[in-house]
Amino acid sequence: MNSKDKIEYIVNWIKNYTKTIKSQPVTLVIGVSGGVDSALTSTLCAHTGLKTIAISMPIKQNSSQHDLSLRHLDFLEQNFPNVEKKIVELDNVFKTFQ
Length: 98
Fold this sequence. Notes:
Layout: H1 3-20, E1 27-31, H2 36-47, E2 51-56, H3 63-79, E3 83-87, H4 91-97
Parallel strand pairs: 1-2, 2-3
């Protein structure tokens, strides 16, 4: 199976999985950390055509990693009309619990 076929298979799996859920979700929500795993997963979600909310939630995060997250969020938003990006700063929440 080539890469294009693998992408299509996974995207179809995500879409079909959402159809099996009783509440029939209309939105996918994915956290984007700046790493490869979340970048790949969020891109596959965006390829489904379903509304996808991609969120970066930094907590005391290294600025270079957070920059990767922000760049990927911009890439998703610019290339997929179904993607909405959000940034939720969690440093203060962390401090409260600390």
